[in-house]
Amino acid sequence: MKFFIDTANLQEIQEAHDLGVLDGVTTNPSLMAKEGIFGHDNVMAHYKQICEIVDGDISAEVIATDFDGMVREGEILADLHPNIVVKVPMIRDGVKAIRYFSEKGIKTNCTLVFSAGQALLAAKAGATYVSPFVGRLDDVSTDGLQLIEQIVQIYGNYGYQTQVLAASVRHVMHLVQCAEIGADVVTCPLNVITSLLNHPLTDIGLQKFLADHAKGNK
Ligand code: G3P
Fold first, then answer.
1. Global pTM value
2. Which residue's CA is the closest to the ligand 1 atom numbered 9?
């Protein structure tokens, strides 16, 4: 399973990269705004910086919601760097844009997916990735992980090449269960990735090893 980091924060991206387990990055307009990145030139420069840190797929989202606008923005984004994946919302013109990009060999990530039917449409349109939002479904008392299971099964039934990118992954159990289900990718904040390190028995065990070693070296 690939690990993507879901942030536009360069320090966090660098930290996850330095851990040696990072496969890519996802961003969205909210995450860019959180870092104070506004204006076309600043946004483009920021994506370029991310591409310099991580040698993996980097999702950059279009803002337009009409076909022509999404195509225009997506082509500019895709020209920035070969690793850019054009992130397109699951709306009618978005599906058409995904088909267009797919035929041009431009990678896409279909975002804001909340149902198996939407995921099926994204795959039919030729999306490279589909992003079901696990945590946001949980937020409205719907089992987000069940959707991941459904999509993995449906794609498997027909051999769709679209990769299931579990998004809005908020904690370790989300991540581990996505791996059990067989999601191709998870994207999550840095703290979810680093939380995988934690186990109290590891800390206790290490303390004991070091204490015993110290005894013999007195
Ligand atoms: O990848 C989508 C993600 O950014 C949404 O996460 O936690 O805002 O629902 P969250």
1. 0.97
2. 168
